[in-house]
């Protein structure tokens, strides 16, 4: 969406007005807030999981101390390539507790049955709750 607004501004500057700029500003604000919210949700779950798994917490602390050191308070994006264990914690957290609860819209390309329980007709649009698909993997 942002690229469309940007392209429109570059190619047809006469049609860009204050309203378009307002739409772009509102869209950027919404995207930033959404990114902030999903990040905070994921970090909250990760910290909660680490709190209940002291061994994993110690491993993360050791990895941070080794690669970052105790003298630095902030981890930068360039540091993350060395923080393999922390990356796996975040990935597993996203797997267990997805910040965005619903999948994208899917359309069936043929009639199908999921595990003998759910019949989906050709052309059916569906949205799945990620948490259920992840935690009830036997069905899916």
Which key terms come to mind for this protein?
flat; Plant_Cytochrome_P450_Monoox; 140 residues; mainly alpha; Cytochrome P450; 2 domains; two-stranded antiparallel ribbon; Cyt_P450
Topology:
Elements: H1 2-11, H2 18-51, H3 54-67, H4 84-96, E1 106-107, E2 112-114, E3 118-120, E4 125-126, H5 130-135
Antiparallel strand pairs: 1-4, 2-3
Family: Belongs to the cytochrome P450 family.
Protein name: Cytochrome P450
GO molecular function: heme binding; iron ion binding; monooxygenase activity; oxidoreductase activity, acting on paired donors, with incorporation or reduction of molecular oxygen
Task: Walk me through what this model shows.
The model has no long low-confidence stretch (mean pLDDT 82). The chain starts with a helix and ends in a 5-residue tail after the last helix. The strands form two sheets. The protein has a two-stranded antiparallel ribbon with strand order 1-4. It contains five helices and four strands, in the order H-H-H-H-E-E-E-E-H. The chain folds into two domains: 2-96, no CATH class; 106-135, no CATH class. It is mainly alpha-helical and 140 residues long. One of its GO terms (molecular function) is oxidoreductase activity, acting on paired donors, with incorporation or reduction of molecular oxygen. It comes from Gossypium barbadense. Pfam families: p450. This is Cytochrome P450.
Instruction: Give the spatial strand order of the biggest sheet.
Output: 1-4
How does the overall form come out from the CA principal axes? flat
Which residues sit in consecutive blocks of at least 5 with pLDDT less than 50? none
Number of helices: 5
Query: Tally of extended strands?
Result: 4
Integer average pLDDT: 82
Distance between the termini: 33 Å
Largest sheet: 2 strands, antiparallel
Give the count of structural domains: 2
User: Pairing-aware structural class of the strands and helices?
Assistant: mainly alpha
Q: Which series of helices and strands comes N to C?
A: HHHHEEEEH
Rounded to an integer in angstroms, the radius of gyration calculated over CA atoms is 22 Å
Q: Strand portion, in percent?
A: 5-15%
Q: What helical percentage do the residues reach? A: 55-70%
């Amino acid at each position: 969406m942002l690229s469309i607004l940007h392209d429109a501004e570059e190619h047809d500057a006469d049609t860009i007005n204050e309203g378009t700029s307002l739409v772009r500003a509102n869209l950027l604000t919404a995207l930033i807030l959404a990114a902030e919210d999903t990040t905070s949700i994921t970090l909250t779950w990760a910290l909660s999981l680490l709190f209940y798994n002291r061994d994993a917490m110690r491993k993360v602390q050791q990895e941070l101390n080794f690669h970052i050191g105790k003298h630095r308070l902030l981890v930068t994006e360039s540091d993350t390539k060395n923080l393999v264990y922390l990356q796996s914690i975040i990935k597993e957290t996203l797997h267990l507790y997805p910040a965005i609860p619903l999948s994208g819209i899917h359309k069936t390309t043929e009639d199908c049955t999921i595990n003998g329980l759910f019949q989906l007709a050709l052309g059916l649009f569906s949205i799945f709750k990620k948490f259920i698909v992840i935690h009830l993997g036997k069905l899916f």
